[in-house]
Every structure is written in C-alpha cells, then in structure tokens.
Specification:
By secondary structure, the protein is of the alpha/beta class. The chain has helices at about 5-15, 70-85, 95-105, 120-135, 175, 185-195, 220-230, 250-255, 285, 305-320, 325-345, 375-390, 410-430; strands at about 40-45, 45-50, 55, 110-115, 135-140, 180, 200-205, 235-240, 265, 275-280, 350-355, 355-360, 395, 405. The longest helix is centred in the last third of the chain and has 21 residues, at about 325-345. The two termini are about 15 Å apart.
C-alpha cells in the first residue's frame, strides 16, 4: 500500500481538529484503506500531493473541473473578479450573465436562482415544488443522492439505507415520513405508487443519469413513463443535474434524453471550480419564490461575484471549444482502449460510460441499472486496485461506487497511461 509521509503527518493533525480528519467522508479513504492524500496543488490533468508526487487525476474534484485544474482563463477571471471585491451581498452583473447562459442552454428553463451548493439547490427546489402544488409528499429513488438535507437522507448513494428510514443518525424519522422511495428501473413499482398516492405527490426527484451509486444508466422508456405519470398526476418532475448538467451535453441529460422536466438543479460545472449551485424551472413555478412569491429562500453568498465569473468563463470555453463533442470522443477512445484490458481481467469488471462519465463496475452479475451493493470480496478487490493504480501515478475515486471524470485537459497520452496502469494493476490484483 502506498504511503505519503507529509500526508500522514497532516492527517494526524487533522484528526485532532476535524471529525475523521476530513471535511467530506469519502475523502477519508475508509473504503480503500490507507492515508488520504493531501493535495498541495493541481494543474491541467494532474494533482500533486504534499510530498510532491504527481498523479494523473480522474476525480476532478468530483465533477466540476471539466476544463481541468487551474485553467488559465478561469484563474484570470477569478483573479480579476477578486480585485473588484470577493462578495457584495447585493446583485451583480455576473449572476445575470450566468443565469442567461443556463436558461438559454437548458430545455424548458425560464428562470434560475443561485445558491452555494447542490444540496441547497435540491432543498430549495423541493420547497418550491411543494408550494407550487400545495402537496407535501416527495419521491426519490434508491441509490440516488441529492445532498445531505434531512428529508433526502433516505436510501441515498451509500446503498446502506432501508425503505423510508433515515440513512444518517441525527435525522428524525418524521423528517423522512413525507418521502417515498422507489427502486430505479422498476416500472411496475412506479405505476403502483402513482396509482396509490399520485394525487398527493408534490414532486419526484431523480438523477436522470444516476452517478452516486455507480453509473446506473437508465432505460429511455423508464424515464419516459416517469414523465408521463408525473404529468398525469400534476406532480412536478425534478431532474437533479448537479453532476450531469453541462457535462453530458450543453443541455445536460435533458437534452441528451429529449425529456424536459418541470424543474432542474445544477452545481459542479456551472461553478467552474467555485462553490455554486442553482435551481430553476418555468416562470410560473419560480414565481413562488420570495420576494415575488410566498416561498422563502436566501443566502448571503448566493450569486457571489467571484464564483459567477468562474462559471461564466467555464461555460463560454465549453461553447467555444465544442467541448461536449470532444469529451464524447475522449470517452469513446478510453472505452475502446480499455475493452481488451477488461476482457483479460481475472474477475468480473465492466466499463460503464456516458460521455465523459466513466465507472469501473465490479458487480459479478454485470453492470446494474438499479442500486446494488457490492460483495465484500469485490470491495476488497477495489481497494487493492485503487492502491495499485495510485502506485502507478493514477488517482481514482477512493470508493468503488464513485465515477471517474474526464476533462478537456486529458490528452491521448493520458488515456493511454490510464489503460496501461489498469493493465498492470489487474495483473497484480486477484
């Protein structure tokens, strides 16, 4: 198992003053063992740890760095914005410019409001949906993660939750009593719930491309039935595009699928590496928000000028560079290169891909479409694989349920390095 002296020292210090030594649980390497790498700096497709070791990065800060680390134009935009002030607590031109780009790009969207995280975006969208429908019940799908708001921490991305019971301590059962949970890819269960409670459901929220419990590609027909049922019962359909928005396509999964939701939530890419989230929908729904309407939502740092500058610059570069076509070609090249490598693996392993999202599935029955828990044996295999890749200079997500992200900074030789490292790693992992 690889080690890093400086990271070990920092981690020991962190454990004294930060719970678990990290600010987000998956960073702690609990699923793979060993000491988490403390990152000193990053550039392009690479990160450098506190000991100066370089790694080819396929985490990309969990999705927002679609241009790669420290893109010069984004850095310049952020630097220039900072010279004018880091926060105003008042409207700024940047939020108008970014909102215009998002509304222009995403199907059916007329208005958006900015927040500081994906969790805030989802929490606020559900509040507006409840206000707009006058109903309380919401529906989510097992294995889909929508942030850590209390009423959504049920059957979340960990795969450890049970039906309509909180998947975290500190969440009262009453908070999730208005949340219904359905399995993905189960049309019968979906129709049965709507037949029983359809007229009481305020909203259904789904990742149209679930990417928090592996990459669970959904059938077009299943999502079309979901759209039909929500429309028939006056239930708002919310697409959680925090990961897929502006990554799968200019108009996210909605454009790719040809399905228009009533509301959508965004994060990751629209912040260009800064903390930004947003939620939006038709004007008739969004008009319920204060100060225009009776539904309260606020945030001191919402529409932050520095974050808006990063987002505007990122989206402009994506447009200019025909990024989604390039990323699709990148993903296809990686898929082609890995096919013979995985075919020769000594245990079940499949590559699941959608555009620049990639997942190495270790499920023995083939890649799943619904949340499925890995065996202890598969978990142990992934831990060994993770460290074997790390030793070869490739940084993967430290969990077998997390997906990899390609960026415009990844070059052909980086894809080749990934494939070569995986070939060598599989040779030593059984």
């Amino acid at each position: 198992m690889t080690s890093s002296k400086r990271s070990e020292q920092l981690y020991a210090r962190a454990c004294h003053v930060i719970p678990g030594g990290v600010s987000s649980p998956v960073r702690a390497f609990r699923a793979v063992g060993g000491t988490p790498r403390f990152i000193e700096r990053a550039a392009g497709a690479y990160i450098f740890d506190a000991d100066g070791r370089r790694y080819l990065d396929f985490v990309g800060s969990w999705g927002p760095l679609i241009l790669g680390h420290a893109h010069p134009e984004v850095v310049a935009a952020v630097t220039e914005a900072c010279t004018r002030g880091t926060t105003f607590g008042a409207p700024c031109a940047g939020e108008v410019e970014l909102a215009e780009r998002i509304v222009r790009a995403y199907p059916g969207l007329e208005q958006v409001r900015f927040v500081s995280s994906g969790t805030e975006a989802v929490m606020s969208a559900i509040r507006v949906a409840r206000a707009a429908t006058g109903r309380d019940l919401i529906v989510k799908f097992s294995g889909c993660y929508h942030g850590h708001a209390d009423h959504l921490l049920v059957a979340a991305g960990s795969g450890l939750a049970t039906f309509e019971k909180p998947s975290s301590a500190g969440v009262p059962a009453a908070f999730v009593s208005s949340t219904r949970v359905l399995p993905l890819d189960d049309e019968a269960a979906l129709r049965e719930l709507f037949a029983r409670e359809g007229d009481r459901l305020a909203a259904v929220i789904i990742e149209p491309l679930p990417a928090n419990h592996g990459l669970l590609l959904q059938r077009q027909s299943f999502l079309e039935i979901l759209r039909e049922e929500t429309r028939r019962h006056g239930t708002l359909l919310i697409f959680d595009e925090v990961i897929s928005g502006f990554r799968l396509a200019r108009g996210g999964a909605s454009e790719r699928l040809g399905i228009v939701p009533d509301m959508a939530t965004f994060g990751k890419v629209i912040g260009g590496g800064m903390p930004v989230g947003a939620f939006g929908g038709a004007r008739r729904v969004m008009s319920r928000l204060a100060p225009e309407g009776d539904t309260y939502q606020a945030g001191t740092l919402s529409g932050n000028p520095v974050a808006m500058a990063a987002g505007v610059t990122t989206l402009d570069i994506l447009e200019r560079e025909s990024a989604w076509q390039k990323l699709e070609l990148q993903g296809a090249a990686l898929e082609s290169m890995l096919a013979p490598v995985l075919a020769n693996a000594r245990f079940p392993m499949q590559l699941v891909r959608a555009g620049s999202l990639v997942w190495l599935s270790l499920h023995e029955g083939g890649a799943p479409r619904a949340a499925s828990t890995l065996s202890e044996r598969a978990m142990a295999r992934f831990a060994r694989l993770f460290h074997a890749m790390l030793e070869r200079g490739v940084y993967l997500p430290p969990s077998p349920y997390e997906v990899c992200f390609l960026s415009l900074a990844h070059r052909a030789e980086d894809i080749e390095q990934f494939a070569g490292a995986l070939r060598e790693s599989l040779a030593v992992v059984d």
